[in-house]
Amino acid sequence: MVVTVGKFRLLFFMLIIAGWAAAPVQFLMEGQKLLTPSFVFAAGNVIILTIIFLNRRMARPHTAEEELSMETEKANLTHFIGDRKEELSMETEKATLTHFTGDRKVIIEKAQILTRKKDFLHLILSYPMKPEPDEDFFNPVFLRRRFSDMNQLRREIKALLLDDICEEHEHELEEKMIFLIREVERMFDRYDFHAVAYLPQEADVITARPDKSLTHKIEVGLTCQTRAKFEAPDEMLELAIDSAIRQVSKCFQDGILRKIGISGRAGEEVAKALKDIPMMQSKCSVILCISVSRYHSTKEVLQNIAKQSNKLPPIYGISILEEYLFQFPHDDFLLLLDCSDGPVDSLYNIKIPDHAFVVLTTQSQEVYEIMNVDLEITMDDHLLPWNLFCRNVGSSLVLSSSAIQQMAIPLVKECHGHLLAIVLLARALKGVTNIGVWELVLHQLTSQSSEVMVHALKLVWDQKGIITKHCIKFCAQNLGFQDSPVSSWISNSLVGKREEGVAIFEDLIDFFLLENVGVNDVRMRKETKNVLQKYFIPYLPSLYLKQGGLGLVETPKIEEWNNDKEIYLMDNKLSKLPENPKCPILTKLWLHKNYENYDLMEIPRLFFEDMPLLHSLDLSYTSIKSLPPSISMLVLLHTFRLKGCELLMELPPQIGELGKLEEFDLEGTELMYLPKEIGQLIRLKCFGSLFVDVQTATKNLSRWIQ
What is the DSSP string of 498-514? Predict the structure, then answer.
């Protein structure tokens, strides 16, 4: 069921009637008001769904296109009924659009923006990235009908605007246009996040502002055009032509969008190439190429079509010529209209059969001003892979070196139009001036058969430290964040300080692994998440080495210490520790209760040399006799337990360097005195098994100081 303005009004009227009819029953049973919004809403839903059901059961058989459109509208209606949040959003949107009523310029501008957005969405969906929405809401049949109506209404409203007259039906036209705008926007909103990263214009300042909505960012990025800083290389122009040919061919193969307009340079090359494509030759036995200039009337264009087919009737009035066009068999007619000589008059008056395939090319004029086409392909948009790469790697970097520019061209080609991979690759190479690195990246892309997203993410992944990788893992395994994930990283012990988390978060934004798409809205793209979870995260080593109570007589290999945040080796039979383990992120080390046969008796001299972040150390119930001088390197140590170390007779003077120490457990040791440097531990709160303030701790310690 196609919900027209008239039917929409009828449904709304029936909704109100149902609410009033059922209200007395509600009044008698509940003693409440005769009409409540919730009851009216529920009753209206029943009526709407019943009408749809009866219409589907009793209506005539529908074509495949109608069935597809009806299914989409039914899905949209069901989504509308079930989602109260979207209902409120629609009411706000309706109020906004109601403000447009009477302002025909604003309505026309809004329709033009949506038309541009539709064409751009179709463009990026023709590239190989996976769409962000979980479901495919981009219905070409639905959009073809809506935009055909919208273009016609836009022309009528524009005519009224130019004539500066007020017709009786102008408000009806505006209402129809507003309804179409609202209907199309609901579909497009689902693709805003998918599209915002690939805007063809340099609207980085706008897209970087989290206070602006995604819709606003896209509209600005699609309408505020800027000139490119330099011309695209010839290889990229060839790539753009190939991409446009592929997009048009896919449209004709699907058979839904049959009237395509191509604007910009090299559009005529795309049209010419279509004639030689085997698919088009097998599909269309009649292919006509017509040149159109500003001097051609509608009749002359029709005459040229007839002449090329060698079937010019003896009497060729416009009506007869138009009838001739309708005689071509279905799927057997390709009409190429070349308007590249300059501006031409409108071809809206030419009635072309719906089953014909039409490609109109122009260099200097908006396609929709010439003909009511289903889709406009802007050739500059197909330079998107090159423009995205340059913008994300830094245009100044590409301009600074001809060698880098020559490396950039094959890199973009090897991405095969995968825009997300192009952005990731560019961000990973941003600021890299070493041509050897560029050559290595290109070699990896060309020599391995893995998908391009794997290569792009590997380049990013290999540049990250172990903590950052685990933060990436956390984001990939969780849904979008209402705020930056820093707080979640801290609560899950991935980072210790907020400053560290903020630095990692900003780094992931810079590398395009995370996107700050709005106020309190941080996301990771679905395809990025899927590739990370499949190829990288499963092989990420743990941050925790947990081998306590296993009866070990040797410590794990020294390589296993390097990337650990916490190490648990208690309750073992260790007698020897590594000489100088490199533990740049280690925060907790537990070695207590290694006391069987007095196994652990000595700590190597340089053992603590490279543990700059260690804040918890437990050596309780071991047989150590002393602490090495490298203990002074643990400047962030917060908790130090030596409980039950019966052979420990003295502490080194370097103990005074532990300025952050708050808990120091020496219970059960045989210490006879303490070094004077221990008086420097001004933050000490727990000494032995007692919690004390600083003054009490200092007073008690003074009795022990040598």
Answer: HHHHHHHHHHHHHTTSS
